[in-house]
Amino acid sequence: MNTAAFVKRHGSYGLDAPYLIAVPVALVLSGVVQGILTGLPWPFIGAALVLLFALFGYHTSRRGKFVVWDRLLGELEWTGAEQVLDVGCGRGAVLMPAASRLTTGRAVGIDLWRGRDQSGNAMEATWKNAVAEGVADHVELRTADMTELPFEDESFDVIVSSMAVHNLKARAERDRALTEAVRVLRPGGRLLIADLRHTGQHCETLHSLGMSGVSRRGLGWRMWWSGPWLPTHLATATKPR
Ligand SMILES: C[S@@+](CC[C@H](N)C(=O)[O-])C[C@H]1O[C@@H](n2cnc3c(N)ncnc32)[C@H](O)[C@@H]1O
Description:
Blueprint: H1 4-7, H2 22-38, H3 42-74, E1 83-87, H4 95-99, E2 106-111, H5 123-132, E3 139-143, E4 156-162, H6 171-184, E5 185-195, H7 199-208, E6 212-218, E7 233-238
Parallel strand pairs: 1-2, 1-4, 2-3, 4-5
Antiparallel strand pairs: 5-7, 6-7
Helix pairs in contact: 2-3, 6-7
The chain binds S-adenosylmethionine (SAM).
Residues 16, 65, 88-90, 93-94, 110-114, 117-118, 121, 145-146, 162-164, 167-168 line the site of S-adenosylmethionine.
């Protein structure tokens, strides 16, 4: 597996869903306290399991997703002239490695910069990462909602999105975001959406939008958010020419 993206990383990418850290911390503490009070081994075992699952999430956020996305981007054929869109780019974990594959092309990241979804999430932080990674010449950032993309039809050759679409709670909103992605994708363009929920629905919607080669696959343990209970899947499709 190519881990070059992780090794070469110079930016600072925060932690996904930082508010969730309180849950395993509370469960581990309560297990330890119960274990001490009861003298039984089970609360300690429970606390150790919770800690293990939480460590998977930490690994995914800090390293796993970079390794996996480097591999996914490496599977695409690049000329360097592509127009790339990252939907819900956050601090640029996918945007920067995509931009590093460009010569004359441009990688555009759109986001609402919600701190609840990623720690330190802000356009300025993402821009600093573009500079730190040496790709700022190829990066453009915009504040925009994924359900209303501020781009012309058929503007992008590659559209990526990682852990972002699930933030839209209603299926109608998610379908709207997918419809927008398909609208701004050029014929022959590739769409890759990684998420921990709803990727099966994404595939149904992409089929109904006339996309071809729609497929879904698991991304393996490096993108488990809470052990095997919360894996990440990738939905991919191509816009017919
Ligand atoms: C868990 S973060 C993932 C960020 C980045 N893709 C990554 O993998 O590191 C989810 C991102 O989706 C963004 N987001 C949530 N709802 C959005 C919306 N309606 N439109 C655009 N971005 C949104 C959040 O601000 C956040 O940056």
